[in-house]
Amino acid sequence: MSIDNLRRFFDVNVGKWNGAFYQFDAHGRVLQGIGTRLSVSTYGEDDLISLLQSLYIKQASSQISFVDEEDSEPEWVEYKIKETNIFTVDKYQQIGYFPEEKAFALRYQTAGMLETVLRAGVLGEDDTGEASPKNLKIPSRKPSIVCENCLYSLEGNGRVRAFHIMDPKGVLDTLLIFHEKQGSLVPLTYSSADTDIVNDDRIAPLLGRWEGRSVTKRSGVYGATLAEADTVVLLDKDSSDQLILDNISTKSGTRTTVHWTGSANNNLLQFDGGYEMTLLPGGMYMGYPSDIGKIVNELDSFHLEFCWMESPGKRQRLVRTYDSAGLAVSSTYFFETKV
Fold first, then answer.
1. What residues does the DUF3598 domain cover (predicted)?
2. Residue 278, SS3?
3. Which residue range is the domain that position 124 belongs to?
4. DSSP class of residue 20?
5. End-to-end CA distance of the chain
């Protein structure tokens, strides 16, 4: 990444972000909801500038699954995130950044932050090491992949950061969402009661024809190239409720179509070939392979996806593609409208 783009990446992150953190399982069930604050600043000059981030987690006062925003005098636990600079951005974070769209994807080096969030926000002062509260799931200490995709609101100053956590075997461990805004509080709007929401409530807005444009940036050893394409996505159900998904991309007059069929298990969509999508509240979904280990053994590439439909008929997507060695090959940003 050039120093100019790095500065632009720093600029969109700097500030004080109030947030709501959620942990989901593969079926889109809310496991935890925790209040967070993120303080982001820079230090240094010219090529030596660095980004500093401190995450503050609203500490639970007892063993409860959800932290009440009205708790009296809540305590906040600080976690310092590894700094980002010109020396770490390609080697460690492997950032794919889209300056115009203010979207980015990056690699996390440790799951320590995730464990801290959950332990402080759920266990709090009652962390005795004994029986955990209901729904507490601590991510693996040695995940095979921790991928962050971030999309900024097209209608305000908010953003959503989505984390795929894959366990050491390459199978989904957990899905995490930070919904953040600058200047205003973000209430905890999703709860375990959302498990009553059936598949049709979350999949219906996604069905139909979506048209848009994609921008792909290759990274790392693959070179900093850029490619644009026109895209069409068709998602429908047939008379037997089988899912039919077509992804069509047209670049320089060449058209490529990827055709999948699949089924819906409540809010988990499972497609032929081992790809899955978890439908989340708030117009979001996250896609991932069912078994990355198997794909890597077959020397194939794979991708992780995050989609945010902020308002009906309009959505953004980020797709992070990896090679068989687990290196980030590229990041692709999509903007699509329903027609």
1. 4-183
2. strand
3. 3-195
4. E
5. 36
